[in-house]
Amino acid sequence: MPPKPKFTEEQIVSTALDIVRDGSVGAITAQEMSKRLGTSTRPMFTYFDTVEELRQATIDAAWRLYDERVQQGLSFTPAFKGFAMAYIRFAIEEPSLFRLLFMRKSEATSIAEFLDREGHLNKVLDAVTDTFHISHEQAIWLYENMWTYAHGIAAMCASEAIGFSDEEIAQKLGVICRGLLMTLHAPADERTAVIPGPDVVISGNVEGYATLE
Known about the structure:
Layout lengths: L8 H14 L7 H8 L4 H6 L3 H24 L4 H15 L1 H8 L8 H8 L2 H12 L3 H23 L7 H19 L21 H5 L3
Helix pairs in contact: 1-2, 1-4, 1-6, 4-5, 4-6, 5-6, 5-9, 5-10, 8-9, 9-10
């Protein structure tokens, strides 16, 4: 009977996750794993043929941790806001894993494609339509714009450029969501598409921008 493995696959991946938390996925090497486990490289290669396979398993594990946070966020009321707050909280509490999943080069060519790959598109859209009673197309527009804003906050938190409390995050998300909902009911306005330049002159005032009719 072959000897029982000294470490389980879960322990190996958990150790690799800790390496990412302290650095990056590229820091996962056979030598570093051996150092962290206090043994030879053999336990790692019991489950993975190459270091690259372990790195991919670690990325998959990071996605599962993120998915757990999302499920918690979607259980809140309203679920759409809960999701956005969970996304940002993940960036605050797991900055290295957030950077691994959301702040590196992606093959996605648009926000729509990125959100589809993120894995929770339909659940979030259901939460949006249930909360605000808008069409599917409007829900997609709202989600894409809301995610752009939430990602900005999350990226600032993950890079430790700025920190926000839960109260500040909730307030900011509420403000931008209200503004986006107002825009859904406002007529098309050419001012939103203007590219700023030294010779660009736009007439108007705050009241004018806030007018819905």
